[in-house]
Design a protein that fits this description.
- The chain is of the alpha/beta class.
- It has 2 domains: about 5-55 and about 175-235 and about 330-365, FAD/NAD(P)-binding domain (3-Layer(bba) Sandwich), CATH 3.50.50.60; about 65-170 and about 235-330, 2-Layer Sandwich (D-Amino Acid Oxidase, Chain A, domain 2), CATH 3.30.9.
- The chain is about 30% helix and about 25% strand.
- Strands 1, 2, 8, 9, 10, 11, 17 and 18 form an 8-stranded mixed β-sheet that branches. It has an 8-stranded mixed β-sheet with strand order 5-6-4-13-14-15-12-16, with helices on both faces.
- Helix 2 packs parallel to helix 9 (about 355-365) and helix 3 (about 65-75) packs across helix 6 (about 120-140).
Length: about 375
């Protein structure tokens, strides 16, 4: 593409900071850079029409980990590391709410529930560990997080008791991203969409960025592409596709809150009078380790089956929409926040907790710049 003199002069000249990715991390990084360096010329590059990974495609859970997930994390992380993970998620959610306001993002603290299949032995294990986890998290919440509640929603093929988390909430992901984008643009930060970064190279003073549309130079490059990070040579991050569907409106829907099922590999919630249902990547981990934004029959059929047999067993429903998003995962839950070379930095591997930690990771990425 041949750009005009005006285009190059206005959008691609004297760029101080270029951020790859206009999701939660990239936008918060840009806002923090503008606070630290008010006169800086900041450019954000986004490969999609809208943020391409998970920021506009997630389920909108304002969560920090179900009981079984926290117990499972203790197998691979120390108690202190698990406390720090939860604390970061809680602080990140508070930052998100402070930055945008509860009304703007439609934040509702309706609580979170973890369901266990009737034949699942995990329930007894969670029950035995519940008080230990509550004690572990007391310094963060100053109260017990997890309690037991009876099944009052009419779910079938699950145990009559489930774990309840009083602090879990939900947000409107679209409203969150719309507000963030407006905030960024109001600060004079530029965003170019439909621009795919192919590669970059570095010299003593700058980074040369080659995209599928044009090439240009920037003083510093900050990578905030999360699930797509491996494309830019950050091998510690693997893509993880999450498939989602949503029903058409259901009359007299009594289900309210956020719900986790099968160790969190399935998750569902109400959006007004609809059910959003996602997950299932554990049905074929290898196939879902992809950046391709498609759906598979294996996962979608299973989601529909669980809707019919477990979640809405006595309620007729129709599927309205299906989509997928790309998360960034790895062998550790802690995000990768580091300087990769003289002028290149990254904030990636959010581990499916982008809503919770994206605001903080973006700020911390910006704060890596000296």
């Amino acid at each position: 593409m041949n750009l005009s003199y005006w285009e190059i002069k206005s959008w691609l000249t004297n760029i101080d900071y270029t951020i790859v990715g206009s999701g939660i991390v990239g936008l918060n990084c840009a806002l923090q850079l503008k606070i630290r360096f008010p006169k800086a010329n900041i450019l954000i590059l986004e490969k999609g029409i809208l943020p391409q990974g998970a920021s506009t495609k997630n389920a909108g859970f304002a969560c920090f980990g179900s009981l079984s997930e926290i117990i499972d994390d203790l197998k691979t992380h120390s108690e202190q590391e698990v406390i720090e993970l939860v604390k970061k998620r809680v602080n990140g959610l508070q930052r998100l709410r402070q930055n945008l306001g509860d009304k703007t993002i439609d934040y509702q603290q309706l609580g979170g529930y973890e369901l266990f299949a009737e034949n699942e032995a995990l329930f007894e294990h969670c029950l035995a560990q519940k008080e230990h986890i509550n004690n572990l998290l007391k310094p963060v919440f100053k109260a017990s997080v997890f309690s037991l509640k009876e099944n009052v929603f009419g779910f079938e093929n699950i145990k009559k008791d489930y774990s309840f988390n009083q602090f879990e909430g939900q947000i409107d992901t679209g409203k969150m991203m719309e507000a963030l984008l407006q905030k960024v643009l109001s600060k004079g930060i530029k965003i170019l969409n439909n621009v795919f970064v192919k590669r970059f190279s570095e010299d003593h003073n700058a980074v040369k960025i080659e995209t599928d549309q044009f090439s240009f130079s920037t003083s510093k490059l900050l990578i905030a592409t999360n699930g797509f990070a491996s494309v830019l040579n950050i091998p510690e991050v693997k893509p993880a596709r999450a498939q989602v569907l949503i029903t058409k409106p259901i009359k007299n829907l009594a289900i309210k809150g956020t719900f986790h099922l099968d160790e969190g590999y399935y998750y569902f919630r109400n959006i007004n009078d609809r059910i959003l249902f996602g997950g299932g990547r554990h049905l074929d981990f290898k196939a879902e380790e992809t950046t391709v934004l498609l759906q598979t029959k294996l996962v979608q059929n299973k989601l529909e089956e669980l809707l019919k047999t477990t979640i809405l067993p006595k309620t007729p429903f129709e599927i309205d929409q299906r989509w997928s998003g790309i998360m960034g995962v790895g062998n550790q839950k802690k995000p990768i926040l580091k300087q990769l070379s003289n002028h290149v930095y990254c904030g990636v591997r959010l581990g499916g907790m982008g809503v919770a930690i994206g605001s903080l990771v973006g700020e911390e990425l910006a704060n890596l710049i000296e």
